[in-house]
Amino acid sequence: MNPKIMILNGPNLNLLGVRQPHIYGYDTLADIEKRLRARARSHELAIDMRQSNHEGELVTWIQEARTTCAGIIINPAAYTHTSVAILDALLACEFPVIELHLSNPHKREEFRHRSFVTFAAKGVIAGFGAHGYELALDAMAQLIADQRTPAKPAQKAKTMRAAK
Ligand code: CA2
Q: How far is residue 70's CA from residue 5's CA, in Å, rounded to a whole number?
C-alpha cells in the first residue's frame, strides 16, 4: 500500500476560489485536491485532504495521522499565528511535517509574521499560491524516499565533502 500523506487546511480555506481571489487565487480546494491526487499517484503516494474551521478538529486529525500516515502537509491558515494546541499535536508526530501557505505571510501584516507551527515543521513553502500544494507534495515525496533509502556512509561522506 502506498504511504499516505494527510493534507490539512485550516479555517476559511473552504472559501478558496470563491472570495478574495486577488490574494488567494481562483482555484478551489477541490481543484487543488484533484491535481494533488494525480501528482500523489506519480510519487506512489496516497493523500487524505481535509479542511476544518475548528482548531480541536484539526488537532484530532493530526493525532489520527500519527498512526495512519507517513507525513502531514498543513496550511493552518489563521491558526498558524495563534495555535499552541496545533503546534503541540504536530510536535507529537514522528514523521515529517511541512507548513504551507498560499500567500507569503512575511509580505503581509506583522501579526502574520509569527508562526507557532514552524517549530514543528521540517520546512515551509509560502507565496506560490495553489501551486505550493504540489511543491509541498514533491518535497514530502523526497523526504519519504530519503527515509526509505538513506545515503550509505561512504556516499554520505562524499556528499558532505562536496558540500564544503
Ligand atoms: O497564505 C495562507 O495560506 C494563509 O495561511 C491563509 C490564511 C491567513 O490567515 C494566513 O496568514 C496565511 C487565511 C485563509 C483564509 O482563506 C480564505 C480564502 C478565500 C477567501 C477568504 C479567506
A: 6
pLDDT at 58: 99
Nearest by Cα to 86 from 68, 63, 102, 104: 63
**Predicted local confidence at residue 22, as pLDDT:** 87
79 among known catalytic residues: no
Rounded Cα gap, residues 128 and 132, in angstroms: 5
Q: Does residue 77 line the site of ligand 1, with CB under 6 A?
A: yes
> Tens digits of per-residue pLDDT, 99-127?
999 999 999 999 999 999 999 999 999 99
Q: What is the pLDDT, as a whole number, of residue 21?
A: 87
- Rounded to the nearest whole angstrom, what is the distance from the C-alpha of residue 15 to the centroid of ligand 1? 9
* 156 φ, ψ (degrees, to nearest 5): -65, -45
- Contact of 116 with 82, CB cutoff 8 Å: yes
Q: Is 101 a catalytic residue?
A: yes
Cβ–ligand 1 contact at 112 (below 6 Å): yes
Out of 22, 54, 79, 101, which one is annotated catalytic?
A: 101
Please indicate whether residue 105, judged by its CB atom, sits closer than 6 Å to ligand 1.
Answer: yes
CA of 77 to the centre of ligand 1 (A): 5
Beta bridge partners of 51: 9
- In the chain, which stretches have pLDDT less than 50? none
